[in-house]
Amino acid sequence: GQQVMQIPQYQHVQEGEDFTTYCNSSTTLSNIQWYKQRPGGHPVFLIQLVKSGEVKKQKRLTFQFGEAKKNSSLHITATQTTDVGTYFCAGADAGNNRKLIWGLGTSLGVNP
Amino acid sequence: DGGITQSPKYLFRKEGQNVTLSCEQNLNHDAMYWYRQDPGQGLRLIYYSQIVNDFQKGDIAEGYSVSREKKESFPLTVTSAQKNPTAFYLCASSIERGGNEQFFGPGTRLTVL
To answer: Which secondary-structure segment (H or E) carries A13?
Structure first.
């Protein structure tokens, strides 16, 4: 079935280091969304990418959508303790009524 | 303020009892969703609704039931048939079903003793 694989599952970094999480889909996506869930909280929408090869930035966060619209990445430059949480990607399947398929998330810890 | 509310935040029930979790939104969204999240796991879709009086099973619907009598409300009942009901339950809504941004409520943490 349709899957969105997300790696790594966990990562701990020292404050100031960079961090990247990757998503790979088994099918072509019409768009991909990224969400952040703080510990004990609920997922909050960060961004949506639609176009092939699209790159978007939000301050220290850089989001990319692959040329084939099957993979995506989120890169955080110079992490801060406020970046702690789990980052989820969710891809809208291009063929299946645009059903949203969720990755399992990457849990980020930041040591001060 | 527009948003999604879920209540209660924490819920305890005895095994064998049905329990209903509430979800209300005032965003005027057509689509609503229920997800289950277990520790270290992603989000698994239980049920979704695209329009009033219509809903569809998600990936893990067994042991759950829903209703959508009003656009604003999408309650979830966890029945005694659900084998492992202890989990964090999240309700979400979007303008319409499909690849649209989803807005989440704060969640209900259900513990079955």
So the answer is: strand A10-14
